[in-house]
Design brief:
Number of strands: 15
Strand order of the largest sheet: 1-8-7-4-5
Helix content: under 10%
Radius of gyration: 25 Å
Order of helices and strands: EEEEEEEEEEEEEEE
Number of helices: 0
Structural class: mainly beta
Largest sheet: 5 strands, antiparallel
Length: 220
């Protein structure tokens, strides 16, 4: 399995200028998309608040009960290296609660996101046709909303030959390469990348031969 990945954060209840809260803490600078990491950081400011506490949770309603035993930090202290490891995949939230010097607090602000640590599944790659000097590749078993990356090496680590979106209506995606290739033998491999940045295992090999030169005329 690849490193944990996280989908797009979406601001939900952040209203720093039109908030009805008397005391609040707000998070800024949190990532809109995270790839290849298990943590994130954010800056925290406040309105009438001297301290804040935060919770990462799958309870996107962010109830006050989540903060019953929380650690409190001085406003202006950044959240650094907050871990996603306590969360399960799916909807989740960063909940931030402010507290005044007198200990008074309002309701927390919440910042929702979707956690996705599962890479796309493996698929079968094959060559099905040639359009002149442009091979056509068939991907069988692809997931929707992924980007297919085509390579010439078995580790899917060299320069990408081409990319193409997977089909959104079928588990089979057919791609004809856009660029013409010179005559010769070719081996193709591929991987899929989902919207969170998770990468599938490198596929099987698909071989093809391009020969656009006609046979040599016989000598009579």
């Amino acid at each position: 399995m690849s490193d944990p990945q996280v989908d797009v954060f979406e601001e939900c209840d952040l209203k720093p200028f039109a908030s009805s809260k008397i005391i609040e803490a707000t998070a800024t600078g949190y990532p809109t998309q995270v790839s290849g990491t298990t943590t994130f950081s954010a800056a925290v400011g406040g309105f009438n608040a001297n301290e804040f506490s935060y919770v990462l949770t799958n309870d996107t309603s962010c109830p006050l009960s989540l903060f019953s035993s929380s650690t409190w930090y001085t406003i202006g202290t950044d959240i650094v290296g907050a871990s996603y490891s306590i969360l399960t995949d799916g909807p989740a939230a960063l909940c931030v609660l402010g507290r005044s010097s007198a200990g008074t607090q309002d309701q927390p602000n919440k910042y929702t996101f979707n956690l996705d640590r599962m890479p796309p599944s493996s698929f079968i790659l094959s060559t099905t046709a040639l359009s002149g000097s442009k091979p056509t590749l068939t991907f069988t078993g692809t997931e929707a909303n992924t980007t297919l990356q085509i390579f010439n090496d078995s580790l899917c680590a060299s320069a990408i030959v081409e990319t193409a979106p997977s089909s959104t209506t079928s588990s089979t995606t057919i791609v004809t390469l856009r660029n013409s290739m010179s005559d010769g033998s070719y081996s193709f491999y591929a991987s899929a990348v989902d919207v969170a940045g998770n990468v599938s295992p490198c596929s099987n090999v698909a071989n093809t031969v391009i020969d656009t030169t006609g046979p040599v005329a016989p000598v009579l």
